[in-house]
Structures are given as C-alpha cells and as structure tokens.
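Notes from hallway chat w/ T.B., transcribed later so I don't forget. T.B. wanted the structure written out for a chain they're using in a teaching module, and asked if we could keep both sequence and structure tokens in one place. Agreed to drop them here.
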Amino acid sequence: MHIVSDRADVPAFFARYQPMIDVALRAELVGYASDIQTTHRYHMGWADKNGTDLVATQGKRLRPTMVLLGADAVGGEIRSVLPVAIALEYVHNFSLIHDDIEDRDRFRHHRPTLWVVWGDETAIVSGNWMLKLADRSTRALHGIGISQDKSLMAQNQIAQAYLRMIEGQYMDIAFEERTSVSVNEYLSMIERKTGALIETSLYLGALVAQNGNSNGRMLDGLRRAGYEFGRLFQIRDDILGVWGSDETGKPVCGDILNKKKSLPAIHALNSVCEPAVDELRKIYSKSELDDDDVQAVLEIMDEAGTYEFCDSMSEKHRAVASEIIDGLELDEGIRKDFFDLGDFLVARSS
C-alpha cells in the first residue's frame, strides 16, 4: 500500500501574510455577543467548545493567502484586498461546516466537527451566518477607497464563485448514487466545488489591487493559474483521502470507508477488468465497509495503477500552472512564491 509521507512544508511566503489575515478574520467577529460566535471561533480554531481562547490557529488560510499573493503579483496594496480575502475564507469555512454535516465527517483538524459538538441544526445555522458574514466583508471594499465599479465586480465574482462551489457540491453528492462516473465528469465537479474559490482568490486579489489601466494579460494568466492550482489542490486531497495517515490529518483510507467517488475510486472503476469492477460496485453498495472491504479496494487500486495515475494528474496540473506563471511579467521573488506554492500543493501531506 502506498503511504503519503511528509514531503512539503508550507511555503515561507505564507508567513508574510498570516498575521494580517488572522487579525482581519478575528475582527469580523467583534461586536457579536450571541453564543453563535462561540461556534465560529471553535470552528476557526481560536477557542474550545466552551469559548476558552486557544493559542494555535487551524488551517493554512490558503485562499486569503492567494488573494494577497495576487495583489503582490500586480504590485498593489495588499491591505486593499483584505475584505476580499476575508470574504473568501469565510465562504470556504461555510462550505466546510455544511460539508461535514452532509458527509457525516466527525473530525476536522483532529477535533470533533461542529455538528458533532452542537448538532446538525446549530451547525447549519452557524454555516449560514458565516456565509452572510462574507457578504458583509465584501461590501466594505468601497469604504476603504475601492471604486464602486470594482467593488460591485468583486461582490459579483464572489457570489458567482460560491454558486459554482455549491453546484460542485451538488454534483459530488449526486455521484454517490451513481454506479458510473467518468474522470472528465469528476474534473468538471472539482473545478466547481474546490476550484471556484481558489481560482477566484488569485484573480480577485490582482483585480482589486491593481492600479491604473487593467492588465488583461496578467489577470487572465493569474485566473488560469488559479484554475490549475484548484484542480491540483483537490486531486492531492483525494490522494490523501485514500493513502494518507493519522499524521496527515486524514483518516486512514477515510474516503474508501465513506464510499466517496473521489478520483481514486473513479479511476479504478474505469480502469480495471469487468470482474474487478463488479467487485468494487458490490463493495460500494454495502451500507458499511469493514477492514476486509478496504483491503480489497486497495488491492484493486494497486492493480489498476490508481495511485500512479492520481499522482501524475497532480504533477500535470502543477506543470501547467508553472508554465503559465513563467510566461507572466512578475517580480522574480513573487514568481518564486508561485513556484513554491505549486511544489507545496503537489506534495502536501495535510
């Protein structure tokens, strides 16, 4: 069995933005005395379930980091894009809260998920509140000097991104009821469910921060690179969902146990001989899987070369993103940041 090892550290440039992002995220919750704030602070990793402050934060804040990196790519003022960065991070976390309910995932970042602690109803309300918090954050753009036209454009782009994200989640849920899903259908799903926010993060950071005349080639290039990064991120996530470990933060073979139609399952179903396909379908039709079922699926995936296929797909998207970045007129330090980001996404273990 393949085991994913710890191959990559978070790129150094993340530290350039993290303090600013963390302060801005926390500031959005100031002024709300309701107990619902405890659910948000718990989910964001800032407090325990009783509301007691924790020192450590959770998550890499990939999407807001990409917003600020997009601003740096065009030489803009990164503080001008903080409302966009915060909005996209809260949209992302709204989706995580609801995804955990839909998938019945009991742990995230080694802690019980929101619905496990407070129940489905409270978790749904908490997620909905977080989505509207994102809308409020975006509307703050005009108040910090961003033109009304650009502010409205940013609001529209974020709304379109989370509509695409929800569409992708719908497709993902629908796949669970189907016996056959193609790799192309899978890619169409992840470019919505995961890719929409990542692509929009990089593009909007550049769009909002750029000064003077619009550099269409730069904006288009960053959007296309974000598209590739989005696919790369989810493919790597699917690899970790099967071949990760407790140390990576992913339950061992968790996506198999949950019978998820992630890329490894889809590749195996489309790549092995008919008897093996029949066995896979029989296993995935069970209400619950045991260790023998998991081992049987892993053996079929080994036979099909599924790990190698998924790994090569992630490398392909990293290479395309690097080629796009290499063709843009960027500061060499920023260019290196993008290359480091690609290296991280293709090798991350959590």
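Follow-up for T.B.: The longest strand covers residues 107-108. Might be a good example for the class.
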